[in-house]
Queue: 2 jobs
Job 1
Amino acid sequence: MKLTAEALQQALLNTADQIEQQKDELTDLDREIGDGDHGINMSRGFQALKKELQGKDPFEDLGELSKLVGMTLIKTVGGASGPLFGTVFVKFASKWNGKEAVEGDQLYDGFREAVEGVAARGKSQTGQKTMLDVWEPFTEALMGAEPLETVIENALADTKELKATKGRASYFGDATKGVQDPGALSSSILLRQIAEVLNG
Ligand code: ADP
Ligand code: MG
Ligand code: MG
């Protein structure tokens, strides 16, 4: 599995389109166990990102690309999720600066740094029914043999049954059991697109 700057750029453009398709679904979930803005937040951020990326030549540096993505998402997504998605890419940039492609340990190290960055920034850990419950198993799966798509589906299914103990959803207590976490779903949309370019 190898991630090039060009492939990540394509995965992000694909994510922007897929977010538009699932925007209402994301917002409806956030209406059930949040404040009903997650689809709107993600759509705003990824449409801004799409504009930013489309106006640029294809990137040759994963660090440069990741930094631009992180800054754009932090500026435009808003909510609790904006700084967290932004952190993912700022951390990628810190590990992948100057690299046109990463694989093996370098690929894993970027994701590991991202997951730890989100946990630190969100003062959160796995098991609290947040985006981390998808990012963490995905990251570990980069070193395993199981297909990434399967790992994502299983992580989403497991997260759905958890009780939220972090973020806005935690105020809904037991009512969150059986409802998908919106940030876990949006993370799965992004990670599926990354998995696709990693496999291709
Ligand atoms: P807000 O809750 O401010 O309206 P969003 O609706 O955009 O922000 O994002 C909510 C999502 O952010 C949740 O579904 C969850 O996955 C994620 N999230 C919120 N707080 C945290 C946290 N402390 N750590 C990790 N993820 C979090
Ligand atoms: Mg919200
Ligand atoms: Mg909000």
Note: The first helix runs from residue 5 to 33.
Job 2
Amino acid sequence: MNFLEERIVKDGVVKPGNVLKVDTFLNHQMDIELIDQMGAEFKKRFGDAPITKILTIEASGIGIACLVARHFHVPVVFAKKSKSINLDGEMYVAEVESFTHKCKNQIIVSKKVLSSEDHVLIIDDFLANGCALQGLLSIVAESGASVEGIGIAIEKGFQPGGRMIRNLGYHLESLAIVDGMNDETGEILFRPQEA
Ligand code: 5GP
């Protein structure tokens, strides 16, 4: 088990409805040393790519993206969620369905902070059905920037997002891939990964 998998086993809580709570170390209270270690690991996995920007989505992706960005020495851009937008042509816009909140949001990024010159590393906390990622990918496509990779903290491998994104040909790296979890026993099964 790697350092993140060990922490998930120690402090993660399996909830009914295929939800894994990691809010004591990742997306409510945040363990900065752990997340910094995740940043170093992403740097190892994507270090050869000419990344100019880290892109994530508010809110829980932001803290992780900031610590990843420290290792790449590039800015973070986070897509904002907004229900009603005054479209003035200065924004890239995509529609995203939320897994945890079961609602639809538009996400927006200003054209000022993403352009066709950019090489983007997308970072997020979870990958489940892939809706959040599809929204971010559509924003990058609209901007003309290139996607150098996608780094995820926890992929739920039993939901379809990871396979869909890999089938599209993206370089997707998830630090922990959960292939199964049981909310009665609390058991979590990880997909074996190369060391
Ligand atoms: P997707 O769009 O891939 O279905 O879901 C991605 C988003 O849903 C993530 O950014 C995360 O905020 C949230 N999410 C999905 N599954 C889980 C989960 O099991 N636990 C938590 N805490 N968040 C989740």
Note: The longest strand covers residues 146-156.
